[in-house]
Design brief:
The chain is α/β, with parallel strands linked by helices. Helices cover 50% and strands 14% of the residues. It has an eight-stranded mixed beta sheet, sandwiched between helices.
Length: 337
Amino acid sequence: MAAIGIIGAGSWGTALAVLLHKNGHRVTVWSIMESEIEMLTKEREHKDKLPGVKLPEDMVFTTDLAAVKDKDVLVLAVPSPYTRSTSHSMKPYVREGQIIVNVAKGIEEKTLLTLSQIIEEEIPQAEVAVLSGPSHAEEVGRGIPTTIVVGAQKKATAEYLQNIFMNEVFRVYISPDVLGIELGAALKNVVALAAGIADGLGYGDNTKAALITRGITEIARLGLAMGGRIETFSGLTGIGDLIVTCASMHSRNRRAGILIGKGYTMEQAMDEVKMVVEGVYSAKAAMGLAEKYDVQLPIIEQVNAVLFNGMPVDEAVKNLMLRDKKIENPLIPWEEK
């Protein structure tokens, strides 16, 4: 049994709290919002973000960040725009060698850092790992079979966390490619916006398949340039996470994209979804990385044009379809006869 602190009481943090409690661990959940903690304590249910999932009576909820002290594992589950500020506030309570598992997905626009890099910068005494994969909180909270990946620099840390999280409905793999895992996690949200826009325009399965396939190509192209591994992008945290995010109505990024495809502005879509749409925050950062590493990201580029430059969605589609003619995979040679 481990003592675990969940930092962030949104849908994902709450679902993981339920999972870890079922695994026999002592769980404390923190939120900055007093109203949220009051609701969780009184109702034993996150009625806004995870309705129908009951929370155990011995699960502790608090607004006191000092509660993260003396925990075996900390799970950082705040939305990506708040990763830096929350990490900064946590630092005084974090001991040397503390394991922190980041479960949010994103890239910081100003610095182009991944979330684990931000945590390492703010809390240098911590050992930072990541947990990612095709895993909607709504399904994990209900115990629906799910597979996911823990990434860590040390194999022993990854194996320890694998044992902490894994059970009969939550299968955990491990990987040393932390960078590749985080890039796949962040950039798939941008592609999911594009998939949602296509749905909002009334396009079909052909379009969705094209966006998923060419989208993972873009993600892998950038990831390899940055030092990630191709195996990661063809695995659960690459194509696996991209498929589920582009196809499911649980995906806030897809839902926001659908609204944009129907004519909503970015701001109106985010207001309607009522949750942080991570892909909006990662889209500009992705283009910053593309420029830094000199790679082409045509789908992500058009998503940026729609989100921030007012480009009509049908024009963005036309730009993608009428790009210069390409070979699908230039690494496959022609056999001239």
